[in-house]
Write a structure and sequence with these properties.
Order of helices and strands: EHEEHHEEHEEHEEEEHHHEEHEEEHHH
Radius of gyration: 22 Å
Strand order of the largest sheet: 10-11-12-13-9-14
Number of domains: 2
Shape: globular
Structural class: alpha/beta
Number of helices: 12
CATH architecture of the largest domain: 3-Layer(bba) Sandwich
CATH superfamily of the largest domain: FAD/NAD(P)-binding domain
Length: 435
């Protein structure tokens, strides 16, 4: 048996790994060696663009629970993340270069995976295929997928934060602390501003020049990745209660008016990304605006923030809760192009799609993960036929259902116990199929 996987991002790499480990020959198609989208910087698989953070590692947080579900199912992406983790308080952040290199090495060494450097232009619906082309899918492949979907694409714009050299930060005006945790040491570098400094900064941001969006494209932002300047134009409080929130960040007994926070971006502690400062300001304006922050007056930007279009299908009209196309059962669609939002969610969808594909190839009825697991809840959400227009969704307990009785105080503990019990049952079922 052979499966074609299109795309070696988080979802595609995870899908290829899961299938290969179950004896399936995988042809993994990746175009990076031929051409790279400007948002990417290397030819490595599983490259992170927007941030090096995989968000909370607390198992009672929705995305933390999702991570643990993935670990229980032997996720390559979680193995790579845990292996290349760097300090980030309660979050799981990784050295993004080491992370992608780890994934690439594992994939290329697997005897059941053949990496094919090719720009796939057409989808053969007669061949078992997992499409994990990512939200930057474009050109002939996007057109071919659109024909299969027989419905319009949805889209939104995504923006990424600048990365600066640590050596260019002025520590006379900066200090370490945990994010929003008062009186505790931490892994974030905090750059405080007085009210006067903030107002100067704010005025510069809302009047700064941005990179123009193509006339044919309407700007539709996913709230979690909204450009900093767009947030700022909603009003001062959007920043003061959002990415520049000073709560818990006292320094020398004083609460700053606003704070710019930086998070470590590599293991050797030389690069930091600016938390919440995803942007599509021009490069010149990014340098000018950031230099208004006292600690960043002489900052050296090694990667400027950039804007790119993310594309995703209208999954409720196209997919079932296994990430399988309703009208083309040989085709599964995973990753952000399926309508999930976030790095971890994307990888999880690739994992679940691969396990569903494997059962399909064995001619077994596909065992469905219920929405009592975070992985299942995401799949059910994006495939809900009652949703007219899908909005990309991060893992959250709002889409989660639990049959166990609980009260408000211990709700999340019960959610975790119930979910992991269901994942255990699912894993044991898969093990029986394998044997």
């Amino acid at each position: 048996m052979k499966v074609k996987v299109i795309g070696a991002g988080l979802a595609g790499s995870e899908a290829a790994w899961q299938l290969a480990n179950r004896g399936i020959k995988v042809e993994l198609y990746e175009r990076k060696g031929l051409a790279r989208h400007p948002a990417f910087k290397t030819d490595d698989f599983g490259e992170l663009i927007c941030s090096n953070s995989l968000r909370s590692n607390n198992i009672e947080n929705a995305v933390g629970l999702l991570k643990e579900e993935m670990r229980q199912l032997s996720s390559l992406i979680m193995e790579a993340a845990d292996h290349t983790a760097i300090p980030a308080g309660s979050a799981l952040a990784v050295d993004r270069e080491a992370f992608a290199q780890y994934i690439t090495a594992k994939i290329k060494k697997h005897p059941n995976i053949e990496v094919i450097t090719e720009d796939v232009k057409d989808i053969d619906a007669s061949m078992p295929t997992i499409i994990a082309a990512g939200p930057l899918c474009e050109g002939d492949l996007a057109a071919s997928l659109m024909r299969l979907c027989d419905s319009d694409y949805l889209y939104f714009y995504d923006a990424v934060s600048p990365i600066i050299e640590k050596s260019s930060i002025d520590f006379n005006h900066a200090y370490y602390k945990s994010r929003w945790e008062d009186d505790k040491p931490g892994d974030y570098i905090n750059c405080p501003l007085t009210k006067a400094e903030f107002m100067t900064f704010y005025d510069a941001v809302i009047n700064a020049k941005t990179i123009a969006v193509k006339d044919m494209d309407k700007e539709i932002y996913f709230e979690g990745c909204m450009p900093f300047e767009t947030m700022a134009k909603r009003g001062i409080d959007t920043l003061l209660f959002g990415p520049m929130k000073p709560v818990g960040l006292r320094y020398n007994g004083q609460m700053p008016y606003a704070v710019v926070q930086l998070r470590k971006d590599n293991a050797i502690d030389t690069l930091y990304n600016i938390v919440g400062f995803q942007t599509h300001l021009t490069f010149e304006e990014q340098k000018r605006v950031l230099s208004l922050v006292p600690a960043l007056a002489n900052c050296h930007i090694v990667r400027y923030g950039v804007m790119h279009r993310n594309t995703y299908i209208n999954a409720p009209k196209v997919l079932n809760p296994h990430y399988q196309m309703r009208n083309y059962p040989n085709i599964f669609i995973a990753g952000q192009i399926s309508g999930v939002e976030g790095y971890v969610e994307s990888a999880a969808s690739g994992l679940y799609a691969a396990l569903s594909m494997w059962q399909y190839l064995l001619d077994k009825e596909i065992r469905e993960l219920s929405s009592g697991t975070m992985m299942g809840a995401m799949a059910h959400y994006i495939a809900n036929p009652h949703i007219e227009k899908l909005v990309p969704m991060n893992a959250n307990f709002g889409i989660f259902t639990c049959g166990e009785k609980t009260d408000k105080n211990n709700k999340k503990k019960v959610y975790v116990q119930s979910s992991l019990a269901l994942i255990k049952e699912y894993r044991e079922y898969l093990s029986c199929l394998k044997n």
